[in-house]
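Example 4.3 (complexes with small molecules)
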Amino acid sequence: MAAVKNLRSSLIKEFEEITYAKVVLLGSMAVGKTSLVKKFCFDKFKNNQPSTIHVDFATVKVLLPDMNKPIVLQIWDTVGQERFSNMNVSFMRRAAAAIVIYNVTDRESFFRIDEFLSDIERVIPEAEVVIVGNKEDLGDRVISSEEGETLAKSHDYEFMETSALTGHNVDSLFHGIARALYKKNLQAKNDVLKLTGSATQKKKSSCCKS
Ligand SMILES: Nc1nc2c(ncn2[C@@H]2O[C@H](COP(=O)(O)OP(=O)(O)OP(=O)(O)O)[C@@H](O)[C@H]2O)c(=O)[nH]1
Ligand SMILES: [Mg+2]
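Answer. The structure with guanosine-5'-triphosphate bound is encoded below.
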């Protein structure tokens, strides 16, 4: 019985100590959202990855050398088909980060980035955002790195080019997000401590005055 209690309290402790964060992947059809998630989570790539018709999520625990505790990312892979685009807004809610993806060989997918960014700015304005040009392994790109970078800079967002096929920058993308959210969470905790500290002090001084 004591063992069960101990296990329960250690599980509760672990749950309380770990930071959980929702990350949403957005982008047009076939830009490589599912492929990026699969590459990061399972180190697998499919040449004929079927189009996503049901939104799904994968849960990954990330612990990097510069972190004291892990962070658990709940990565939501959305549907790129335009007829379902109004659904994506509901999946965005409460996301701490958004990865907005285009295909460097497809200008249409790059044009659609603006649509996703305006949804993000409306629904989750505090989110960490990374704009990603995927399929950088292909030789027939039509969007230059500079073009992608300029777009990201104009919104003050991070920018990265990836390949789900070769794995280039895939870990860096998700690790960068994990690190940013971990730091943000630490900062938020410190701010709460500071606020609590000043509130206590205020109370004390008013108490002394009376
Ligand atoms: N060469 C290359 N092909 C890729 C890459 N990423 C994805 N693909 C291919 O592009 C196609 C579409 O990839 P998906 O991962 O299904 O794209 P998606 O964004 O999830 O598409 P939807 O689910 O329809 O929204 C698949 O056939 C993949 O094999 C990449 O980095 N390089
Ligand atoms: Mg998909």
